[in-house]
Fold this sequence. Notes:
The protein is an alpha/beta fold.
Amino acid sequence: MGKHKCVSSARRPAGDVLRAEKGINLPESDLHVAALSPDDLEDLKAVVQYADMVGLSFANRPEDVERLVQYMKQLRKDGDIPAVVLKIETKTGFDNLPALLLAAMQSASCGVMIARGDLAIECGFGRLAEVREQILWVCEAAHVPVIWATQVLEGMAKSGLPTRSEVTDAAMGQRAECIMLNKGEHIVAATKSLDEILLRMQDHQTKKRSLLRKLSIAERFFNLG
């Protein structure tokens, strides 16, 4: 939810044209904008009846999460509301993550999405890796599942060929419970490649713990000797 979601374009002195499906980021700015718009609240009337989960975009404060959960409970008197996924996209959301998690746990199920595109712009690309690691640590401690999101194997999904950096990035996603792929005409091939990457990585690491598995390269080396 949260239709005021925006994405930053590069800053140029002479300005730029805002293309379709793009928006503007305002890092380090307290906009005092509600996480749920009137349209979101109207859409939730149907969403709670059919959806398995609801993603809250730009989740910044626990009050935003509490409002979402309480509103869904009002719509579903039986208490069977969709799971809540917190999309962590700003520095404020990252700083408030423990409180956000406690608020989300008022629902039966919850999760966290690391929205790395907006998060990089909001926190700075230099801090993205560190912030991402801390989110993984906090969520593992809270036993909350994580979605690894934004541009995973995007080049392959669009062109059919991955880059080395994309493969490395996808392999790092093994530490999350779920990985989100973007759309593209080669999405089936990208999905198969991601499956192969994760199957090879699952014996090396689970979440934030290295497994120190027996290495096949060592077996081959000694057998050749």
